[in-house]
Amino acid sequence: MKALIALALFSQLLSCKAVPHGPFPPLVYRVLDCDDPETEEAAAEAVNYINTHHQKGYKYALNRIEKVRVLPRRPFGEIFVLELDLLETTCHVVNPLPLENCTVRAFTDHAVEGDCDVKLVKVDGIFSVSSARCHSSPDSAEDIVRVCPDCPLLAPLNDTRVAHAVALALAQFNSDGPGPYIKLLEIARAQRQVNHLPDSVSVEFAVAATNCSAQDAKNHLEDCETLTGEQTVSVYWPLLIPVKSKK
Ligand SMILES: *[C@@H]1O[C@H](CO)[C@@H](O)[C@H](O)[C@H]1NC(C)=O
Ligand SMILES: *[C@@H]1O[C@H](CO)[C@@H](O)[C@H](O)[C@H]1NC(C)=O
Ligand SMILES: *[C@@H]1O[C@H](CO)[C@@H](O)[C@H](O)[C@H]1NC(C)=O
Which residues are the signal sequence here (predicted)? Predict the structure, then answer.
């Protein structure tokens, strides 16, 4: 009996369900399938919202619509509640490339997945997001190692080697260029290189131009402000940096 219940639950998890709302007996308001164009429109709006409202990390692409629920809204319109499964792309959120042009990060790069619960309001045919909650987590390291023992796994962003590698790269860039002084926005990703270069990390980080020259920055770094608006120059670099072991 237990097995039967488990099986029933499992098959429910596997199929995308348009979930009727309310207590028993269910008061079915309007049932939509996950592959309905209207559901897909809501999901596209949700993904766009998520990508424009997170300040860190990478843009997400839609992998799967897990659930959809439509409820009436007072005094008018409808509420859509979506459960979405998202995949990390290689476009950082500061990258101006549209999502359509971003590639989904390969499994072998130790990608991150996002699970999001999003609530949208639809009034006069227009969707707007009223809330979005996401939880992201990297794929299991064991799964990756099983398929690809040499693949670089994610390293913690606060690893001292990572901070060191980024500081070196920034210092070099700022000493070379005649351009404005650039400031670190975020270390977005770090991976340990396992086999090719022992004790090295690859880092990806986002920077922005400031209103200072290198000389200004030397004299009064605290006064250097990140440029915003049309002047923003956000650069995003993947770099492979060998770091000597301290051992
Ligand atoms: C994005 O891709 C489309 C179609 O492949 C292409 O026409 C467009 O130029 C690309 N945009 C950018 C900014 O690369
Ligand atoms: C990095 O962060 C983790 C979790 O926040 C913490 O446990 C660890 O001590 C930190 N490591 C360093 C080198 O700061
Ligand atoms: C950069 O902007 C800040 C804030 O507006 C200002 O205090 C500072 O003097 C500016 N620095 C330079 C070099 O223009």
Answer: 1-18
